[in-house]
Specification:
By secondary structure, this protein is mainly alpha-helical. The chain is built from nine helices and no strands.
């Protein structure tokens, strides 16, 4: 692991535990064991570190999906694709954030409110997801394809919220059974 990767990982854990505003440079230096000079060699500021942490541990998931390559011919295909995404991503998130999904959500919304690039990319992802699902509902002659698409997204996002509240539940089983 490179020093930069180590700083990113430590930064992610500290931002999860304390939030961006409550994480000091002193916290970062202590947790990484680096001097300020060594830290600044890799990141010009705490804000730059924060943005790279958000890009790596959040934005990368959203950018990993190419909706143009997804060929879904039925709502059942949509459900399976969404389950597959969550079955791949949620266990990774749980491993990354030992304090549970609730801390991950806190950091998600903190970044959503403070990091404009992230907000734009998250909205772009959900709009593309909605449009992909909506197109399938249109093919299946839904009377309310947009509402049905939003309902499906809300169903799975609601499951994530449920798992944040009940971290003792088996996430993989709940997603697979949903």
């Amino acid at each position: 692991m490179t020093t930069k990767d180590q700083i990113l990982e430590v930064g992610f854990q500290l931002f999860l535990d304390k939030g961006y505003k409550n994480t000091s440079m002193s916290d970062l230096m202590k947790a990484t064991g680096l001097s300020k000079g060594a830290f600044y060699h890799h990141f010009s500021s705490k804000e730059v570190l924060y943005q790279e942490v958000i890009d790596r541990y959040f934005l990368a998931y959203y950018q990993s999906i190419d909706f143009g390559e997804i060929e879904l011919s039925s709502i059942a295909d949509v459900e399976e694709a969404i389950k597959g995404f969550y079955l791949a991503v949620v266990p990774e998130i749980i491993l990354l954030s030992p304090k549970g999904l609730s801390r991950y959500f806190i950091l998600f919304f903190e970044a959503y409110g403070s990091y404009p690039k992230y907000r734009v990319e998250v909205r772009k992802f959900y709009e593309a997801l909605k449009e992909t699902i909506r197109a399938v509902y249109i093919l299946e002659n839904s009377n309310e394809p947009e509402k049905d698409a939003i309902r499906m997204i809300a169903k799975y996002e609601g499951l994530l919220f449920w798992l944040a509240i009940y971290p003792e539940k088996n996430a993989g089983k709940m997603i697979a059974d949903f």
